[in-house]
Amino acid sequence: MAQSTHDITNQLHAEIERTSARYRPLLLRLVHSFRQGIEEDEPWPSAAESFRDGWRDIRAGRVQPVATLWDGIDRE
To answer: How does pLDDT run across 40-50, given as a tens digit for each residue?
Structure first.
């Protein structure tokens, strides 16, 4: 089962906390370089591409009502 984005973010925060303050500037540079590298390889989609993807999801029925987005969020 794939991990949720929230779980991964929490793990990243925990790893940062376990990293010595002395090495955090280097860690920041590393993360920044990584993000820049993946954005160059796969740039963010344009507004038109995002709209087309969303429209495709709507037509395929891959949507849910906004009112239900937070259902169950407080469950453990």
So the answer is: 777 778 899 99
